[in-house]
Amino acid sequence: MTEQYIKSLRGIPLFRIVHEYAAEFGWIKEKEFRVFIPYDDFSSFMAELKENFGQFMTEPFEINTVIENGMVAINLCDFIPENAVSISGVFPKDKY
User: Fold this and answer.
1) Which of 53, 62, 48 is nearest to 87 (CA)?
2) What is the DSSP string of 76-87?
3) Is the pLDDT of residue 28 over 70?
4) Does residue 7 surpass a pLDDT of 60?
């Protein structure tokens, strides 16, 4: 299997996790895919990210967040490096 194919397979759980937890999501800047997670679901969201992508994530996390109206907004690109999953491949910039 090619590396590109493996990265595309890793995108399947990412797509599911974002759609399951995020109230809103989309590209804000070239390297910023922002997801808005309800505050009450944020811990579960992060646990699923760690379960599926923990081998690519480094701890401790340095999270730049905005908490407003019961939502936690984060840049998903801060957590999942491009060598793990192409976020723009899962969520194309011209659609999200």
Assistant:
1) 53
2) GGGTS-TTT--H
3) yes
4) no
